[in-house]
Amino acid sequence: MLEIKDLHVSYGAIDAVKGISLHVDEGEIVSLIGANGAGKTTTLHTITGLVPAKSGSITYDGHDLLKTHAEKIITLGMAHVPEGRHVFTRMTVQENLEMGAFSLKDQSGIGRDLEMVFEYFPRLRERRRQLAGTLSGGEQQMVAMGRALMGHPKTILMDEPSMGLSPLMVKEIFDIIVTLRDKGITVLLVEQNAKMALSIADRAYVLETGRITMEGKASDLLHDEQVRKAYLGA
Ligand code: ATP
């Protein structure tokens, strides 16, 4: 459903992505792991139209994303949960979630969608009137994911959801990612926490300085000697 072929992306003289190819099939969790600066965020930003490609192709459900405006890409059913969450700190939890609704006019639809988000994240129901800036990092991650779900995406691109969270909270967030996949949402997960990312993914790619160096079933990569040495501290 999402296919990247021979993608090159540069920032001026810096080549951040150097000819990567990958695909994400419907209903999968695919993880893209790699160290700082490997090009993971750049790849996500190119998919969502925030950063232009130099060459290559990205197609999603038959649409050529490199020729599609960022705003239109959202309407194709693709949601992006950015690195650092970017919640609106001076707005309440509920107001943040409402920002993810397609149309603020359809009040009954918004009410239903809020209920759906609160079922995934009961903690957010309790805190619906709390200012988002006063939430813990994990709760802010839940708001960012909930906001994406308000648009009923078919695919979610998640950038470093584990960043800055305690191991317990990371587990909670990753359990929810698995639930989303089980409900039929396709997930492309970018992570530095390779162990967690490989443990929940169906397939994975390893990105090193802009190139894919390994790919395969996540369970195979989790046990691969090279991956264990480089990314799992084994
Ligand atoms: P991290 O986990 O640290 O976010 P990453 O794998 O997501 O790393 P990117 O953020 O995609 O990596 O960065 C890839 C390369 O592109 C890095 O060398 C980075 O310095 C460079 N880069 C990223 N954004 C820009 C930008 N706006 N201008 C110039 N160079 C950039």
Report on the structure:
By secondary structure, the protein is of the alpha/beta class. Helices cover 37% and strands 26% of the residues. It has two domains: 2-77 and 153-232, P-loop containing nucleotide triphosphate hydrolases (Rossmann fold, 3-Layer(aba) Sandwich), CATH 3.40.50; 86-152, no CATH class. The protein has a six-stranded mixed beta sheet, sandwiched between helices. The protein has a four-stranded antiparallel beta sheet with strand order 2-1-4-5, with helices on one face. The model has no long low-confidence stretch (mean pLDDT 94). The structure holds adenosine-5'-triphosphate. Adenosine-5'-triphosphate binds next to β2 and α1.
Largest sheet, described in full? 6 strands, mixed
Radius of gyration (CA) equals 17 Å
Overall number of structural domains? 2
For this structure, the CATH topology of the largest domain is Rossmann fold
- Determine the structural class based on helices, strands and strand pairing: alpha/beta
Strand order of the largest sheet: 6-7-8-3-9-10
CATH superfamily of the largest domain: P-loop containing nucleotide triphosphate hydrolases
Number of continuous helical runs: 10
Spans with pLDDT under 50 lasting ≥5 residues? none
In total, how many beta strands? 10
Task: Kindly estimate the percentage of residues that lie in beta strands according to DSSP.
Answer: 25-35%
CATH class of the largest domain: Alpha Beta
User: Mean pLDDT, rounded to whole units?
Assistant: 94
> What percent of the residues sit in helical stretches (DSSP H or I)?
25-40%
